[in-house]
Amino acid sequence: MPQMSVGFAMMLLVVGNLIAVCSDAMIKSLGEDTAIFQFVFFRQLTSVLILAPFCFTTKRADFFAGFKWHALRGHIWLLGMVFMVISITSLPLATANAIFYAAPLIMLPLAMILFQEKLSKYSVGAAVIGFMGVLVIIRPTEINWAAIAALVVAFTLAWNNLLVRKLPRHQTVAQTLMLTNLAGMPAALALAVWEGQPWDFTPFWTAAGSSAFILIYAGACVLAYRAAESNKIASAEYSGLIGAVVLGMVWFDEIPDLPMILGTVMIILPLVWLAQKEKRAKKKAAAYQQNPTVSAEAVEES
Questions:
Q1: DSSP 8-state secondary structure symbol assigned to residue 236
Q2: Which of its termini does the chain have fewer beta carbons within 10 Å around, N or C?
Q3: Closest CA to 128 of 273, 289, 280
Q4: Composition of the chain by helix, strand, coil, percent to 5
């Protein structure tokens, strides 16, 4: 895979998160009597159907390479989807998404433990300020079981993004996503049967649309987190909150209040600042390569 810049990886995450909000909006449009596990199974099934044409044209004999990691990600992804449906249908769209964006902060200590990534003070600072913005939005006094479900989603997103590093690099994005969904389908079907609700295929097309949007987001994550260290780009995940606020207003008449606006500013501004720091650091590093007499401290600042 060609090497991409940190800036381009961050842009991928920004676009992916804005598209993912459309998937969330489709989930929120479901009726309260929708069977959750059936819908999740439809999400898995439609994802596999969408991805199949892009995968079966490959002639690689090692299509199932690294399947144990795909299986782990698939079941984490399944868990996240179940709690995502619960939280999105119970909370305002922007509030649920704000909690989802705790994932970048969760990724920082996990990346340090699992991959010995070095955390710069700038990436830590941006993530902490962003998470403070999340707290301003949700207000601790309003935390309930739906908010806890959203926090579970944040943990599953963090784990899944970090586990991308364990996947075979020769596999295409479509193969990666298909194997992840395929691995989780037996468990999803078992949960749907255990749920005991009469099968209702009415939400099938909603699941298909939601799958299409979320696959674009997941593909962007695979590309971005393969290309750059997570601590340098994870703050870009916060950008989808703007889309959640706008869609919540337009689609569900959810008018943001002052804490929502303040928290959003606290989330977005560190992201912009971090991108500028990275850009300046790259310029200094390039200058040092051309002229080694440049201060090493200037090069290492990132």
A1: G
A2: N
A3: 273
A4: 80, 0, 20
Q: What's the rounded mean pLDDT across residues 220-229? A: 77
Confirm if 109 and 115 have CB atoms less than 8 A apart: no
Residues 6+ apart with CB under 8 A from 61: none
Average pLDDT, the chain: 79
Tens digits of residue pLDDT in 150-182: 889 988 988 888 888 788 877 777 888 888 889
Closest residue by Cα to residue 95 from 272, 265, 221, 257: 257
C-alpha span between 253 and 187 (Å, rounded): 36
* Whole-number Å distance between alpha carbons of 115 and 125: 20
Distance from C-alpha of 206 to C-alpha of 79, rounded to nearest angstrom? 19
CB 105 within 8 A of CB 237: no
d(CA 144, CA 295): 51
How would DSSP label each residue in 55-76?
A: HTT---TTTTTTHHHHHHHHHH
Q: Residue 288: its pLDDT value, please?
A: 63
Q: Are the C-beta atoms of residues 142 and 184 closer than 8 Å to each other?
A: no
What does DSSP assign to residue 235?
G
pLDDT average, residue stretch 29-38? 84
Question: Residue 31 and residue 21: Cα distance in Å, rounded?
Answer: 18
In which element (H, E) is residue 21 found? helix 6-28
The rounded distance, in Å, linking the Cα atoms of 191 and 262 is 40
CB-based burial label for 70 (10 Å; 0-12, 13-18, 19+): buried
The one-character DSSP state at 92 is: -
Q: Which residue has the tokens 């490959």?
A: 58
Helices (H) and strands (E) in the chain, counts: 13, 0
Q: How confident is the model at residue 188 (pLDDT cuts 50, 70, 90)?
A: very high
